[in-house]
User: Fold these one by one.
Assistant:
Number 1:
Amino acid sequence: MHSDQKHIRSLLKNDTLGIKLIYSQYAKSVIRMIESNNGSEDDGFDILQESLIDIYNIALHKDFQLTTSFQSFLLLVAKRKWLNQLKKNKLLEVTKLTDQLLNDEDHSESQYNEHLLQNDKENTLMELLATLGESCKDIITRCMKEKRQEKIAESLGISYAYLRKKKSQCMSKLAQKCKNHPVFKRYQS
Amino acid sequence: MKSIEELIEDYIDQVLTEEDQLIFDDLLERDPNFKRELELRLELHKLLARRLDPNNDELRFSIQEAENSYKKEGKKDTIILPLIKWFIPVIAAASLIFVGRFFYYTQFPSIELPEMTSETVRGNQNLTNDHYEKAVVYFNNKEYKNSSIHLKKLVDSIPTNVVYNYYYGLSLLGEQNYGEALGFLLVIGDGTSVFANEANYYAAAAYFKLEDMVNAQARINKIQETSKVYKKGQELLRKIE
């Protein structure tokens, strides 16, 4: 087990002191990488936050093991996030990027490939969920967080039967959006 | 009669009636599209349950708190520095009281940085060469704040150059900026360059100064026996133990 696994544990346990230590040791390097690649300091902080959440979600998988330093892994996750953001904002083609961001043969990337791809898939799902109407987003989110759906129906002022019907419609809409996305291509008919 | 979507949701939430269960089983057996739809919906449920877990929200809160505190610390440093000038004599007197406590970690063992050699490095151009040569002079004069300025420019221009990253890490160490120095030294220490052993030794020294003995030990253990810094690493290890 890598000695930097302690930072992973800090995230998994939501240890506030441990998370502060992560910031004091690694925030500058992430922000510097983003700033060197057409981003602002604020972009750097946003990417750092999202990267730590990603690392937490990746670390929830039981088979995940940190095999490099935490810094290498964090920079790898942050790099992918920033490249994705540039792609989404259609800035990738017009941005001069440093070698650090463009290096495709990142050794550590191949070690974590499976986990990173799974994480991309989960992030895509969350983005697709965000494109649903407010009512669908609310119902799906509530139903995932609270198992007693009778309570949810009551708090929304609707019948349980209607909630069930609405939930299945919303999940169906989300599933359809997923099927149209290349990340979920194996479900395309 | 329930729609296919409702049947699947009822199955996933385990609220299928006996009658619907028969319809569900029948569809699953004879309709491959139904089976594929079910697989997708099961996967979506699994992923959503994980991502929408309340622990995720709590972590976001802690991360935001850490970011605020990190930004505040930075600002506090900038505001407090001018004030410190007025209190230098007071601070000096007070620190004498604590000198015994801090002597161990800050003075012993001292980090002796190697000499930075003047040489032509890969990818050189006039501008980078100029920064490199200036960095060499400042670094060897132990004027680390100035050497860091030039080395940062070099690292920014060619982030993958190991020589620039290594000396920038050391220069930051010279500035006693241990956290940031680690950012550079750890990556090199985990790599396979000729600087890997040295980077691990200096990373261990940085951890030592940060009083993180577990990581300091781990870095020393990475130093190969054949390395020039192996002996120094072992000396540091004895101090830690």
Number 2:
Amino acid sequence: MISKESVPGRVARVSFLAAWLLITVFPLYWITITSLKRPGDIFTFPIAYWPEHLSLENYTGLFRDHQFGVYIANSLVVAAVAAAAATAISMLSAYVLARFEFRSKSALLMATLVTQMIPAFIALGPLYLLMTDLDLVDNRLGLILVYIAVCIPFCTVMLRGFFENIPDALEEAAMIDGLSRFRALFQVLFPVMKPGIIAAFIFNFVNCWNELFLSVTLMNSDDHKTIPTALNGFISSFNIDWGSMSAAAVLTILPTMVLFAFASRHIVQGLTSGAVKE
Amino acid sequence: MRTGKATLALGIAAAMLMAGCSTGPSDGTVTLQMVESLTNPARTKLLKELIAEFEQKHPKIKVNLVSPPTNQADQKIQQMLQSGNGVDALEVRDTTVGPWSTNKWLYDMSKDLKGWSGWKNLTENAVHASQDVHRKTYFVPYGFYGLSLFYRTDLVEKAGFKKPPANWAELLEQAARIQNKDKRQYGYAFRGGAGAGNNVVAAIEAYVADTIDPGNGYKLIDGTSIFAAPQALDALDTYFKLFKKASPPSSVAWGYPEMVEGFSNGSTAFLLQDPEVIATVGQSKAIKKDQWSTAPLLTGPTGKAVQPLATAGWGIAKAAKHKPEALELIKFLSQGEASTTFTKENSLVPILKKASEDDFYKTGPWASYVTMTAHPDVYVAVPQPRDVPWWSEWSQKSDAEVQRVLLGKMSPKELLAGWDKYWTEKWKSGS
Amino acid sequence: MEERQLRGQPDVTLSTHQQVERPSPEGGARPARKSAGRRPRKPEFTARRGLVIAGYMAPAALFVAAFVYYPMVRGSQMAFRHWNLTDLTDTSWVGLDNFRAVLEDPAWPTILGNTALWVIASLVPQFVIGFAIALWLRRNFRFRGLYQALIFFPWAISGFLIGILFRWMFNSEFGVVNDLLQKAGLIDHPIAWLAEPRMAMLAIIVANVWYGVTFFAIMILAALQSIPDDVYEAAQLDGAGKARTLFQITIPYIRTTLALTVLLRVIWIFNFPDLIFGMTGGGPNNETHILTTWMITITQQGDYGKASALGLVVVALLLVFSVFHLMATREKATREEKGARS
């Protein structure tokens, strides 16, 4: 229940939200407009805020000159599988961390936090060697495994918050009824936590979808490239192919935006259930 | 039921494994891994076409081209080389050959290439660049980068000049007259960001061209550094005036893309750049083909200019599994049509003697390169010490210090004194 | 007030007599939880309990150990070795020399200061704007879903790309920022944003604020919705004004969320060289370097030993900060709770 809004309050709210919308959306508008200009029209002066000639050339080029469809498919598969697996695995660890007290728990939680502090480049070299030994270089499964590991820490912290908000009486009752703990977790708690799980999945998905360094390091052939690698490929040392890059950027942002739009209710609701009360 | 879920999970994992595994052919076909580092989409496309041609000629060899984004390429290649896995042929540059050969990551091709018929077709520069000081061949160059002056014919004419500038002083004069801040018309596309140091050195070298060590562009004949020469200060005086009087203020931070953009969108009249840029400027819609051309590199008061040739080429990893096949590929890329196509489409100074007879290199923006090749006494090609291990450290140091001068936090004199000290000490302690 | 409905499952109402959410700082035991109406765990089943804990933790632990910790620990040894890519034939053990090289580098104090500025100047506006958005998004309006999707999108772009995008927008001659400011009559002459150290710092911070508001907005919005309506009703009955409600009810209620979000953001902003690298590369004159961009620069020079040492220094700084942050936020919560009880 929110108190009634005064007229100046309303004006302040609406104008603030509108101003921020403008500020946020302008760069998006700018990439979109750039992507719709003819390749030669991108740099004209004075600056054109609306393209003189709309053209889809940059988009068709992505699929004609580059295997952009393949990159999208790779990114989708890798991000979706890794995000789903990381969410499932994190549910187990988060559950334990929320429900049990044990001696090494604080150490585990600190170790989780430390993973967020490590600069990636320290680990890249040894990781490449490890993946070479496992014969998982240039292999989507290899990338998925690494992404799962990278997603787990934050996802665990997040899901732990959800579990803490759900009374343990819930699964205890189910266990008294004869369900195993594992089944109680997935059959009783899962439905209750659905919004939170969706939110966690989306966090994971977006992180994997945008990941660049691991993907560059572990993938070689063009058939296995993900979108961020392809996007960075438009930046060469002497030129940035703005037309292709902005078209690719728009195509990259679109799926995550759609995901956000569909799930924004879930995200907020999910986090509401307590993720952030960690 | 608990085990049921676990089995399911295992099953999924196994299925993923199967899907991820690639099947290898076993009919005697060799698959080469080739890694490029100066990646750009157009070049990658061209390389793939050349590779397809090669594969047609050698049906038992397949080439898998790995094209990491330029910004991340060196790091990735180093990891691959260090792991001793996954690279056969690779792009080696004059800046990377030093460290990579020191680390024993590169294969010395000199024995294999002894008596190769291709040598006689290469230019003197190309043959020279393919050998390091110990006469080892870690890469065969695919082309050269050299500087020339891109200029706007219309703006020069409108400002009342008959010819493009031939030396640094003339450039300052012309650029300053063309500059008109209110109309957003600027004289010179100054390089203040990444790579700033190199252009400063190019200016200094032109001023000391008479006494420069022909084997090392950073040394004088007497063994001292070029930065200690009194003429160096004159060079900086003119060069930094160019920034104050004739360049856009934001060029303090301009690197390669901004400079090229500043010229191709018509806002600056002069640009000192590699021939690669010819293709980019040629695509510009803001300036038409008859509005620009190139002139030879600027000379100093000596009447000479020093061309700081930079190069890159193809080499073989020491841990390569298929060296003979990789060698075939490199030979193929360094000869005939393949090489000519590659240098033409990438706007590189060619490695083949015959190429300069091609009409392509005699006309338009390329004419200035022919002029420069025809007058090696005026446009002296001197190798730069780009293969020293401290080169990347130097690049970052020199770029940052040029910016300090531009921002008024350091005097040109201090800059030169520091650079002289840096190189003198490095030479003393180094090999 | 303690009666809370379980969200997401309105048909199950349980009174758990929980206190207002206590922060459970990482590493802290939570005695209050146990005393607050939860059945204490049965200690008889310790062996079985241990198995459950180990079994459930195993997959996550294995993944993180194999693909995060193992490479990291193995990579960290570079920090104690002479490890220079320009010559890897000699990678001898050098003890703490690399750390000394970092701390004695003349650039160290300046870059440390820049890092603090970068973190604080990015964090505060992100927090304030994010908070305001969250507060004002609570009220439903038409297209709120669309609005959220639109303003949340910066978070879906990679930092490096944002850097490059903003580099062009802030370009002084052809950039759209100057053009807009001039059209609005706010400036007469184009500002050379990325050419002047202070302006460049401002520009990268603006870009980072633009990027980071989203995370705060999402997290805070979510937390705000967890405040039961009856709390506000009670406040209204007490005649509390808007400001008082905000500071005495809203903020204390979601304080633990705020604390955790701030902690995570500090760590992430600290470790966010991508944007700066795309935008200024640390220039002009190295004056927009933060510790992590400096680290990249050092790796590019090939000195992985020194860069790794710097990386471990960063981890140490963040660890110390985290511990203090957690202690501070926890202490405050405990104190207030005691006050509330007495």
